[in-house]
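User: Teach me something about this protein's shape.
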Amino acid sequence: MENLDILVLRALRNWRTAGKRALLATVVRTWGSSPRPAGSIMTLCEDGAVVGSVSSGCIEDDLIYRFTRAYSGKQPGHEIPIGPPGFVKYGMTADEAHRFGLPCGGTLELLLEYDPDAGSLAQLVEALETGRLMRRSVRLSDGAVTQAEAEAPEALTVDATELVNTFGPEYRMLLIGAGQLAECLATMALFSGFSVTVCDPREEYRGAWSVAGATVVSDMPDDVVLVFKPDGRSCVVALTHDPKLDDLALLEAVNTKAFYVGAIGSRRNNEARHQRMREYFDLKPADLERLRGPIGVYIGSKTLPEIAVSIMAEILAVKNGVALPRDMEVAEAKNQLALRANDPDGIVCGVSAQRGAG
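Assistant: First, the predicted structure itself:
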């Protein structure tokens, strides 16, 4: 599944290019609990088709009812308006919050843009599809749009004169190894909005790959990392258990801006990897701190799908800026389990065991 913003903007572009009337709804403010954060977008076509989300569904239904003929025939007043953007609030009263499925105390405000220009939408979608980060500004007095490439993601801002929202390219995942674990992880990454590239020079693994939507390449991992050019919206995950492949990718990846670089393996394998990289490749402690391993969060996973869930959970936590408790790290959790196994009564390591139990 592609990045949701790109899906929304592409659908809106297609509708407007085809001459259909449509609106773009953007969450601009929230108070209390809200189903979707500020900056979330959805688009609504004149025939009632919707792509994207600004709530759990009820607000979308209300917008369809208010601005299309889907539920009301051709009655006047049920079509998309003409003119400058307008604001609308939901959840101002307890009854309205209940009606629209908003959490207790939740309120959100939307900006509705009517019939955005097809040409500027085409330029925006093309830029996003080619991996550029874009800043889109909307003048509230008349809906005029200006767009420019941005250097870094920015939170949505809105004042009396304009709304500014930043749209970024897809998050990307580079997997080293095309085995079954990679297939599980690629599947989860794709429906989480990542584009996925899989690198494996071993023909016997590439030939068995079965996940549609991922790009599979056969070059050596270090060359693939250089071509991939990991940025702040990229992660690199080594899954082969073969140092000749994993280490090549990791050595290049730790020197990039990738938000996550890690490798599968046991605690012992992870220590051996660090030792190799210190002794043979002169990696500094700061470089090794960027290298995660054993990867994943500890959930007692045994099967490959469960291990993939564990890894994907950690990647998403890092992406979203969530600091996980140390006890959830695989190495720390297994160290605590080993301590408990050697000291079941907790006489020697009671404090550590209690901390591990969370």
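Now, about its shape. The two ends are 35 Å apart (CA to CA). The chain has 13 helices and 15 strands. If you'd like, I can walk through any region in more detail.
User: That's plenty for now, thanks!
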